[in-house]
Write a structure and sequence with these properties.
The structure holds 2 protein chains of 2 kinds. By secondary structure, chain A is mainly α. Helix content of chain A is 80%, strand content 0%. The longest helix of chain A has 33 residues. In chain B, α2 crosses α4 and α2 packs across α5. Chain B contains 6 helices and 2 strands; from the N terminus they run αββααααα. The chains are: A mainly alpha, B mainly alpha. Chains A and B meet through α6, α7 and α8 of A and α4 and α5 of B.
């Protein structure tokens, strides 16, 4: 069995379990939607302020909802003590890691698929023909924004999987997961925010956005290599 | 490491810091403002730049500690020799203290120079983010129980690998006149270098003294714990 097939099997097992209960998906999505509603009260409602803060809202939501999903996805392994079975399975650890990370990526993207339209609706801006800078929301240029979100979700899932897996047996894992993840992931979230910020609004700066999208791509590639290398030393049962 | 290391480095640091303070106020040149055409405006002297010798010297060893901690963690994960873990954690803990100095002096300097307590100036932001990673490292070690050392080692490695990304990120789109190679230092001329080198060296000695001291105490703690476990296993202690 090739590595790709093994990883796909593990990822599909993860997603099948999730689709049967839909527990993580629903709670993450609800939480993400709730955050958007909170933002709509918490931030000033003028066009300039909305354009300035929308990228941050999107990425903060993904970070928070993603952390919840991540913690829960591994709690499930702990409750049924299946992590050991998974590690004992006749596949390399690498396949376990890749499968898990892929499943997390899908979950984060599912939340993004809900949160992004919600943000666009709640934070929608009037079409201002006199001042094109002030019109055009999150989906003014959907392609690159979605690309940035996908790369961001992959990067989050890579680092998140490594540390959620190592924290599995730790009592205070719920508080420690963000303590570990957020400092490490700040470059990822900043890059995602800047890419999004360059793309919303009437006049998009594609050069700037492309720079940050490349940044995200390289970030993902580098941390994928490091994670693959480190996963085996960190996750020993 | 010999038991003389800590006193020797501490004394060197004390001498260096005292001499350094003297040099900073008596010998080092004052900073000039740079005019739009690149000429020096001699009339405007910035006394607040003196904090630079303290601030940057600490920042150097904060950055260095991230790499010491990261490399020691790699070796620890590969060899499982806890001595390397002692070094990684000692360097990180001392660097948290150094980072606190960097951030406080940075904030004071920002208020004096730009009239704000905080600015997303690239190097200040870099220091803040590295400090947060190290702070997370220390928290994980303390609260993650028996596997804390491994998880923290992973965090140190990820943090080290992330440094180039943080660096690129903070420097992108930076348009502040103080930033880059033409910043503060460029207006000082060559004379500042001796004072600067002295203060960097003095704080390196201070850093080494603290790290060695911390390594010794961490190691003693670990050995005591291992001994206690051994005694419990053998039934000597109950």
């Amino acid at each position: 069995m090739s590595l790709l097939r093994q990883s796909t099997l593990i990822a599909s097992k993860e997603l099948r379990i999730e689709l049967r209960s839909k527990e993580i998906l629903y709670t993450m999505a609800f939480f993400g939607g709730l955050l958007v509603v909170v933002y709509s009260f918490a931030f000033p409602r003028e066009p300039k302020a909305i354009l300035g803060s929308m990228p941050g809202m999107l990425w903060v939501t993904l970070a928070f909802a993603g952390t919840i999903g991540l913690g829960r996805a591994f709690d499930r392994e702990r409750e049924h003590d299946t992590m050991r079975a998974l590690l004992l399975a006749p596949v390399p650890r690498l396949a376990v890691f890749l499968g898990k990370a892929f499943a997390i990526t899908v979950l984060v993207l599912a939340v993004a698929a809900l949160v992004m339209p919600l943000l666009a609706v709640f934070m929608s801006l009037p079409d201002d023909r006199l001042n094109p800078d002030r019109s055009g929301g999150l989906f003014a240029h959907p392609g690159p924004v979605i690309l940035a979100v996908v790369l961001g979700a992959i990067g989050f899932a890579i680092t998140g999987t490594v540390f959620a897996a190592t924290l599995l047996k730790v009592r205070s894992r719920d508080v420690l997961l963000p303590v570990i993840l957020y400092p490490l992931l700040i470059p990822l979230f900043v890059a995602g925010t800047k890419a999004t910020a360059a793309l919303i609004g009437g006049r998009a700066d594609f050069e700037e956005a492309w720079y940050w999208i490349q940044f995200l791509g390289i970030y993902d590639a580098v941390f994928l290599v490091v994670s693959v290398w480190i996963f085996e030393s960190l996750v020993i049962e | 490491m010999s038991r003389f290391a800590v006193p020797v480095f501490a004394v060197l640091a004390a001498l260096g810091i005292v001499t350094g303070i003297f040099m900073v106020f008596m010998k080092a040149p004052l900073q000039y403002a740079v005019g739009a055409d690149g000429s020096l405006e001699g009339s405007s002297l910035f006394f607040n730049q003196k904090i630079f010798y303290f601030h940057v010297a600490h920042a150097f060893w904060l950055f260095a500690a991230v790499f010491v901690s990261g490399v020691a963690s790699i070796v620890f994960l590969k060899t499982r020799n806890a001595r390397w873990d002692d070094i990684a954690s000692a360097a990180a803990e001392v660097a948290v203290a150094f980072g606190a100095v960097v951030l406080v002096t940075g904030s004071i300097w920002a208020k004096a120079a730009w009239d704000v307590w905080w600015k997303l100036e690239p190097r200040l932001t870099l220091s803040l983010l590295l400090w947060l990673i190290l702070l997370g490292y220390v928290l994980v070690r303390r609260f993650a129980g028996a596997t804390g050392d491994r998880i923290a080692a992973g965090m140190a490695i990820f943090g080290m690998v992330g440094v180039p990304f943080i660096y690129t990120m903070v420097n992108k789109g930076d348009s502040h006149p103080q930033a880059g190679s033409k910043g503060v230092v460029a207006t000082l001329g060559a004379e500042y270098r001796i004072t600067f080198a002295l203060s960097v060296a003095a704080f390196l000695c201070w850093f080494i003294a603290l790290v060695v001291y911390r390594v010794q105490s961490v190691r003693a703690e670990r050995e005591l714990r291992e001994l206690r476990e051994l005694a419990l296993d053998r039934g000597v202690l109950s």
